[in-house]
């Protein structure tokens, strides 16, 4: 019985760890949440996320792009502009983020009550 329970636990734990590895850190969820509202330029994105540096934003966006969650588009303008948007795959995180938000709100109310 213990072996079955352990293997079932691992079936859930491995994909949860994978998801947390991709979304881990202080900035990825705020970036994804901001991009839910549409295409945005780098500087605008930087302004929308208080406390993030340009260097950190660039690093996190590269990782999100590598994981196919964010699309980067270089516009042929002077000066060159770069925009970011969620991919269709990135949009698949919407329900996860909304549920995390609901849970976080309920948790905050419970702890601070």
From TrEMBL:
InterPro entries: HTH_HxlR (IPR002577), WH-like_DNA-bd_sf (IPR036388), WH_DNA-bd_sf (IPR036390). Keywords: DNA-binding, Transcription, Transcription regulation. The keyword Nucleotidyltransferase does not apply. The keyword Transport does not apply. One of its GO terms (molecular function) is DNA binding. Residues 14-112 form the HTH hxlR-type domain. Pfam families: HxlR. This is DNA-binding transcriptional regulator, HxlR family.
């Amino acid at each position: 019985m213990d072996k079955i329970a352990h293997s079932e636990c691992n079936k859930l734990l491995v994909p949860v760890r994978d998801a947390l590895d991709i979304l881990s850190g202080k900035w990825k969820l705020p970036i994804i949440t901001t991009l839910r509202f549409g295409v945005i330029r780098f500087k605008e994105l930087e302004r929308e996320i208080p406390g993030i540096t340009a260097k950190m934003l660039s690093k996190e966006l590269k990782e999100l792009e590598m994981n196919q969650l964010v699309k980067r588009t270089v516009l042929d303008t002077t000066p060159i502009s770069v925009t970011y948007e969620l991919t269709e795959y990135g949009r698949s995180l919407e329900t996860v983020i909304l549920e995390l938000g609901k849970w976080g709100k309920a948790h905050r109310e419970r702890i601070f009550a």
